[in-house]
Amino acid sequence: MIVLAALALLPPSVAVDSPWFIGSMAATVTFSGDINIAQLGADRKLNWLEASFYIAPQDTPYQSIELVNISPATYSMQTDTFGNRYVKFRWTKPDITTLHYGLVWNVDINQLKYAISGEGALGDSIPEAVSDYLVPDNLTRWTGFIKAKAESLTANATSTLDAARRLSQWVSSRITYDLSCWDGSYSAEWVFENRIGVCDEFTNLFLSMARSVGIPARYVEGIVYSGEKWNFHAWAEVYAAGAWLPVDPTYNEVGFIDSSHVLLARVKGDADVQNRLKWEGVKIEASFGPDEMIVTDFEPSEGTLVALNGIFKEEIIGGESLQVNVSARNLANSPMAIVCSLGMPAEMIYRSVKEQSVILHADESALLSWTIAAPLNLDKAWLHKMPLSVKCFPSGEYEGVLTVDPRESVPLLISAGITDLTAVNGSDIFVIAKNDGTGDVSGAKVFLCINNASNCVNKTVSLQPGEEKELGFLQLSITEGTTLSSRIEFEGGTSDSSTMSINELDVPDQGGTGQPSPLSKPVVPKEAEKIVVIVVIAVVILAILIVAIAIIRRH
Predict the structure, then answer these.
(1) What is the pLDDT of residues 11-25, one digit of tens each?
(2) Domain 128-257 shares a fold with domain 416-501
(3) How far apart are CA 4 and CA 10, in angstroms?
(4) Three-state SS for 541?
(5) Under CATH, to which class is 128-257 assigned?
(6) pTM over 0.85
(7) What is the DSSP string of 488-515?
(8) Which end of the chain is more exposed for a tag (fewer CB within 10 A), N or C?
(9) Which CATH class for the 306-409 domain?
(10) What is the pLDDT of residues 31-72, one digit of tens each?
(11) In this predicted structure, what is the pLDDT of residue 541?
(12) Which class in CATH covers the domain with range 416-501?
């Protein structure tokens, strides 16, 4: 591995309001919680209880750790089948109803420490030891429709890294972060159809899409800083050119991730990283109680790995469109997936997407462009200063100011287009239409055509400038070999058609319900085993007696 030359640019610790700017960090992480013991009778008895937790940060080339404190003292560090360390606590004959545990770790992380050694290529041979990460489980199994979407997104990918970038960009932009999914882990198929989730769901869908096009991918459990608070988190890693590269589809970080990511476990899927309880006793039930994760002494360091230079006209009039061009140069000695987002006041109009990404090699530059427009309803008594901010990952920022003079204006531009077309199952298709002009689009018709231009259905939509809307075309019939196309017709024009094909619906059948299964069950107490043996013997004796009585009656 090659050390990134650009790390010399890292300045002293600073306050960071976005994880994209955390180049390295040090922190203290405390995990604590309770285990509740329910006593179900007067003659209850608990001989021992073991609790296993994935709350041990892993020691990696990017992450150094130190165990500062742990309780109870009766613990051991175990290693699972994936090579992850986890902690196992043991209590012997506890006589209380609440057991407490706690660990304190110091972590020092630099996720930008090493260069990417290779980008990989779709179709590369996969080592046998890695091939299992191509096989879906019940949370990442794909349908023919998931695979068709993944194939359409990666059709022009130049490398495995580029394919991961395209998949992450789509998942990040098309799945809505929804806290109603926090208490479960939903399958890729469910997320693909319902378009909502949290980090688990973003990761499950990304894994499914990556594996469906031949990219080995694995699930990563950890914690992360959102820019506002710390929380448990999930992301992914893809195998490319002999190495595992991180991908966080929630934050759209590819190839590198920001250094607030604290790694707890790398596994095949979400169900492989569950905490477990085992115990031996009579009339006892144990369950996990409240838990807490606290990060203190957080010391992030910010750096610059992407140099940005804005090139745009500095003054426009009402309704005028503007091309905001930003030159991005990779300052590191490694290929990078650069992700950049344009921020501006809410009054301004996004005629193009807000966030975009590109692969840049060492010292390579690219021009990123956004089309924006000034509104027509600004107070004409003032010149309006509109701050523009382009923020990039990994760690780059450009700020400029645009002046809008509303005393003059240009005619409204009426325009709209289709920004996404996705068949989610055999009957339902979702189309996203966007107003990419400066005036309202009223009563436009969005057409969905199956196989030919004469077999179409349509829906009416109205869009404000810059607005996107998702339209569902439901209860249709989509079979293998179907070609879909969509366009929007509005006053004064028709958009180009967006198309996709459903080439193959025959996919691996993994069964399952899309929900994780428990990894273990409580140990059967010795006393319970004796009862089971007695019951079995009694049943056998009873059966023998019944047979004997029947024989006697016959004679």
Answers:
(1) 333 444 678 889 999
(2) no
(3) 11
(4) helix
(5) alpha beta
(6) yes
(7) EEETTEEPPPEEEE----------S-SS
(8) C
(9) mainly beta
(10) 999 999 998 988 889 999 999 999 999 999 999 999 999 999
(11) 53
(12) mainly beta
